[in-house]
Each structure stands twice: as C-alpha cells, then as structure tokens.
Write the structure tokens for this entry.
Amino acid sequence: MVIDDEPQIRKLLDITLSAQQFRVQGASTGKEGMIAAAMHPPDLILLDLGLPDEDGQSVLIRLREWYTRPVIILSARSSEEDIVKALDNGANDYLVKPFRAGELLARIRSALRSARQEENTPVQTFGLLTIDFTAHTVRKGDEPVHLTATEYSLLLLLAQNEGRVLTHQFILREIWGPAYTTQSQYLRVYVGQLRKKIEDDPNQPKLILTESGVGYRFVGG
C-alpha cells in the first residue's frame, strides 16, 4: 500500500512495483490509508510524511497500535531529526525523495524477507554466520564465535531486525536500559568489538552497517 498525496508518485510506484509482480493499492490521505489498511491489511506500507490531513508521523504511531508488518517511509524530509523520529516511532526503513527505484525495491525485499522469517526459528544463517537462538551460540563457518553476554544480546537484537535501521537510542534502551539512551560511546565500543569477531574485515563491514548519524542496520546477505 502506498499512502502519498502526490498522484505522480503513486503512479510511478504503481508502475515500478507492478512490474515486479507486486499488487499496489494507493491512498492520498492518512485517513484513507488507515481505513484501507484496516479493511485489507497489506504486506507492506510505503508512507509519506507530508500528508494533507495528518502528519505522517502521527499516522505511523496510530498504525503501530495494531499493524505489525513493515512500514517504509518515503519522504522529502531529510533531516536527521525526522529520520530518527520515524524509526523510533516504528518505521522499518526510511528513504528520502527523490529515491532510486532499485534501492527502494531492495529495501522492500529485505523488509518482506525479514517479516516472513518465523519468530520461533531456532537457527538462522547469514552468509557464513550461524546463530542458534536456542543454544545461544554463534558460529562463523565451522568455527565458534565467543561473545560476551552483552555482545550476544546486541547481535541478537540486530539479527532479529535484519534489514531494519535501528537508531542509537533504540539499541541503547533495549540493551542497556532507558538511563543509557544518550551514552552512545557504549554502543560504538560494542559494535566495534562485535565487528572484530564476526566480520571478515571490521574496517569494511558487510554485516553491521553504519547509518550515519542515525544508527545501525544488520544485513544478512
């Protein structure tokens, strides 16, 4: 579902997504989108922030009261504040207009792939990295990866949100607690340690990507 008040954007997305065998439904206002999503919940929502009847951030908050599938923001707003706010409000991803069709399709596929993963899957493989959520073990190829409890918790949080940008504040709150949401140095240190243990080249990471000024994204391949 595309919730965007610009007819040309809805038409462009309809053409682009239909060519990839997606079925597309459009809505030009927040209210129209909310009603349509409630009646026929889509697999994924592309949401603009600049809607004529209600700010997209408010629509996102209301959607997240019941809608659990992926939401990707498509907006002309490019400030770090807007991006972080949307991600903290529950968006899975954020693309700034104008966007490249190829990148959008890649983000959509990643979000849908992550959503399809069964929550109770005991073992997941990301390239050479294998995480056994039941045994709390990690292997890289045939070799065990020895992680501290905090490192494992951080990797688990990132892996369970594969493809999704997690803000610094969100990660700090989930791992260290509400009192640490401004202590970004903790996060930098642990991400650095984790990269040394799971990345082929920690200086050019392929699994844990930095979203500058916003947070981190885990890309499992």
In short: DSSP finds eight helices and twelve strands in the chain.
